[in-house]
Amino acid sequence: MIEGLVKREKGIKEEKSHTTQKKDGEEQPWLWYPTLTLNLDIKKALPPEGVEWLHVRVQTKHIKNGRYDYEVMIFDQSGDLIALSHHVAMVLDGTRNTAKRVTGGSSKI
């Protein structure tokens, strides 16, 4: 599924997926990114009046077998670290999120 996303971003045509959504009149595969873990560490409180801007840096750490890990860092105007987050998610076909729910059975994930 990651390969399909990369192909789409590079403008490479691929076979039509059975699950698509229309964007600008073109059918594209729809993906779902369920969260496995999410950690958030607040390092510094913002002033009550807020700040004019924050810098957000997102860095992918690892992508393999439909799973990806990435880190989010948020900095203030002076470059001080405000918050740090680590996120682990899966990349699944969108039908896994919209399919009919099965009760009393085993999970598909």
Automatic annotation (TrEMBL):
Taxonomic source organism: Xylaria arbuscula
Chain intervals for the UniProt region annotation (Disordered): 1-26
InterPro entries for the chain: ACOT8-like_C, Acyl-CoA_hotdog, HotDog_dom_sf, Sec_Metab_Biosynth-Assoc
Gene3D superfamilies: Acyl-CoA thioesterase, double hotdog domain
Official protein name in the record: Acyl-CoA thioesterase-like C-terminal domain-containing protein
Domain Acyl-CoA thioesterase-like C-terminal, residue spans: 27-91
Domain of life: Eukaryota
Pfam families xref list: 4HBT_3C
